[in-house]
């Protein structure tokens, strides 16, 4: 799996898995084979929105046998989009 393949998988996985509360989604796969997903949100998420991101991560994980597990983290942050924390690969960003 290379970066381009991972990004294309993430783009496909986002179809029907995005909430208006999501400001930025960034991902990375660490050396241990764990898919890290960081979701920056504008306010606390409910169970349905969590399910959207778990589905997103699960679809990516299902594409690659190299990914052994997934860690999804939600962070409420309304700062300027350029100042918020992120992982190396940004797959979604909403400028407000």
From TrEMBL:
<dbReference type="InterPro" id="IPR058702">
    <property type="entry name" value="MafI2-like"/>
</dbReference>
<protein>
    <recommendedName>
        <fullName>SseB protein C-terminal domain-containing protein</fullName>
    </recommendedName>
</protein>
<dbReference type="Pfam" id="PF26541">
    <property type="entry name" value="MafI2"/>
</dbReference>
